């Protein structure tokens, strides 16, 4: 029903926005790292560096600067490539301008603005992470970080709402679909963090933040599994969408669903995160990130492919139900 470019956009846009949300939260927690070297030295002499408001110790993970120099370009490239896939699929620049400057706010218009803002925030933080030495006020960093979190959440929600709002596919018409996409995007964002950590050299132990990230992603995976099971179950509950749900559960798409989404994308990363990722081993971080991202891609492919089994795509079946 959709082209490969749209599937790529759903994956890259969602994963890039998920990484944006995670990294913006980290930037807000560790905004002091953008203080100039001299200012940090003065704060350290005064015993204030590494402390939060009111002198309390900050709970920021204090990740090294080269982590951000690797993580932000990953998020930026994924977002930019996702937008490029969307533009290539549309094919006509005037349609893009019509969407952006539409006088009536729609989900498509809001999603378009969120994509542009997300890309701008990613560019700003990627530039700051690659070119050190700037003295940026913590209030400004946190303000941009909050904007990035809001824009990222809207972007990852929009990728699911875009499908949910299509009346031509009954299987997609449930709020569980955006929920699945949001949780998957956040997990894919954590996978990008794992990949960046795997290539981060540091004299400081990264075991503690890596363990915290693994626990957080495990929670995302469990919630995604519950939302996905509910999404397929709801599909079975309605006659119009039963064939699409059947295609995923035991039909033509069952191997990608059980082996790809459930096995590679959910079970294997969850087991790795509970066993070896908290130890901060580089190869386990890479494998976990790769499995999560592969599962996220197959999730979007299967959800889009299942639409072709929906009763609305089979004229004979649809007319039969209409007569009944």
TrEMBL record:
Q: How does it sit in the membrane?
A: Multi-pass membrane protein
Q: Which InterPro entries match?
A: Electron_transfer_protein, NrfD-like
Assigned protein family: Belongs to the NrfD family.
An annotated GO cellular component: plasma membrane
Record keyword Oxidoreductase present: no
Phylogenetic placement of the source organism: Bacteria, Bacillati, Actinomycetota, Coriobacteriia, Eggerthellales
This protein is called: Polysulfide reductase NrfD
**Pfam families reported in the protein's UniProt record:** NrfD
Q: What is its main location?
A: membrane
- Positions of transmembrane segments: 6-29, 71-92, 112-131, 143-164, 176-200, 212-235, 255-273, 285-309
Tell me where it resides: Cell membrane
Q: Which domain of life is it from?
A: Bacteria
Origin species, per record, is: Candidatus Aveggerthella stercoripullorum
**Which key words tag this protein in UniProt?**
Cell membrane, Membrane, Transmembrane, Transmembrane helix
Q: Does the keyword Chaperone apply?
A: no
């Amino acid at each position: 029903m959709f082209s490969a470019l749209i599937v790529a956009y759903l994956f890259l846009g969602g994963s890039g926005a998920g990484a944006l949300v995670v990294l913006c939260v980290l930037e807000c927690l560790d905004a002091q790292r953008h203080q100039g070297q001299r200012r940090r030295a003065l704060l350290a002499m005064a015993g204030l560096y590494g402390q939060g408001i009111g002198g309390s110790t900050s709970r920021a993970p204090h990740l090294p600067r080269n982590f951000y120099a690797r993580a932000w370009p990953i998020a930026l490239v994924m977002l930019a490539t996702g937008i490029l896939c969307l533009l290539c699929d549309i094919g006509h620049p005037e349609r893009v301008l019509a969407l952006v400057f539409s006088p009536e706010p729609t989900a498509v218009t809001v999603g378009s603005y969120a994509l542009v803002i997300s890309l701008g925030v990613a560019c700003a933080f990627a530039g700051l992470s690659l070119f050190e030495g700037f003295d940026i006020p913590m209030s400004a960093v946190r303000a941009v970080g909050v904007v990035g979190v809001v824009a990222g959440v809207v972007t990852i929600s929009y990728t699911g709402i875009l499908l949910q709002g299509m009346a031509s596919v009954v299987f997609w018409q449930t709020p569980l679909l955006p929920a699945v996409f949001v949780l998957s995007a956040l997990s894919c964002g954590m996978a990008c963090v794992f990949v960046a950590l795997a290539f981060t050299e540091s004299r400081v132990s990264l075991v503690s933040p890596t363990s915290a990230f693994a626990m957080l992603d495990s929670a995302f995976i469990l919630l995604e599994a519950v939302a996905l099971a509910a999404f397929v179950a709801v599909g079975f509950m309605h006659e119009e969408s039963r064939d699409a749900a059947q295609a995923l559960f035991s039909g033509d798409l069952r191997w990608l669903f059980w082996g790809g989404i459930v096995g590679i994308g959910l079970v294997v990363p969850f087991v790795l995160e509970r066993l070896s990722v908290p130890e901060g081993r580089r190869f386990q971080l890479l494998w976990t990130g790769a499995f999560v991202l592969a599962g996220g891609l197959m999730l979007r492919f299967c959800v889009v492919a299942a639409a072709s089994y929906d009763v609305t795509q089979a004229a004979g079946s649809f007319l039969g139900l209409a007569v009944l």
